[in-house]
Amino acid sequence: MIGLMTRRTVMAALLAGATALPAAATETIKAVVIDGYPARALWVKEFTNFFIPEVDKRLAETGNYKMDWQESYGGTIVKPKGVLEGVKLGLGDIGIVTTIFHSSKLPSQGISAVTPFVAADSRAVAKAVDEIAKEYPAMQAEFDAQNQVYLATGVVLDTYQVFSREKVESLSDLEGQKIAGAGMNLRYLEGIEGAAGVRGGLTDFYNMVQTGLVDHAMLWPEAAKTFKIAEVAPYMLKADLGAVNSKTITVNKDYWNKLPDEVKDVLQEVAVAYRDHVAGIAMDRAEASREAYVADGGTIVEMSAEDREAWARAMPNIAAEWAEGLDAAGQPGSEMLAAYMGKLKDAGFEPVRDWADDDMTN
Would you tell me which CATH number, out of the four given (3.40.190.170, 3.40.190.10, 3.40.47.10, 3.40.50.1370), belongs to the domain 161-243+288-346? Predict the structure, then answer.
């Protein structure tokens, strides 16, 4: 009887010990996120408010992993133009790369920048560019060459407009003027007699206009509101030059290779959700930003359809040049251009100029 009780006592103790064993511990993974732009910039703010919480929520469903986020913005680690290099070198694990600064290293990312006057809709452009990136490996290969893994393209502007110190009402008013831009959009000025493009960044435009270094700047209403552009450029020419993809979420390749598959899957899924989320906010805020610009003392002048067509006609076919450059490098540039234009047409947009099937002469 004593032996039986002893065996029962031992078994009970073993069972109790088994149930008391802790569940598998959650692994914590550090992630350093970098961008040179300040935390108030739309895409940075939404990385904090949307991307990070969404990743945390999805990882919490299994409890296997959690992220230790360390965010560094506003030039603490890199300047706006330094994110690509910073992620390449491992200064950040995840970065928001402003691709318009890197046309030589990331040429295929210029696909929407070389096709103005097509779609003033950030959602449609973001989706089309990201689909091209997934369908044509050339775009992702450019990031691979920079020791990075492409997650998703972002569009943070509804459409470029022209903001001016003095009132502008027509295309001829831009002749002989100095106009600030951030990259490829400076080529929009080719064909406008005497117009000179001056390269700058979003954080520079206020001072460039204020000091008279330029007469105008090409940016979008939400950014104009955020950076108080109405104070120095109280006139907006509503030219609807179009939405442009300018942000891409990337991950350092060495860091990526060490991540568990579950974390990789979540980051990829959330990057696409972030793409649509930010593009949606950009569109939602577009009208409110225009109203805020007016409330701050700005005046909006709508460019005529005739002047928009004249502007598009005056430009060289920078899209064809872009495609031919990729073709010469062994990449399917012309195919990508045709596919991109097709996607936007299928989405209901009628281009002022069909860059893939051009019937305009310069």
Answer: 3.40.190.170
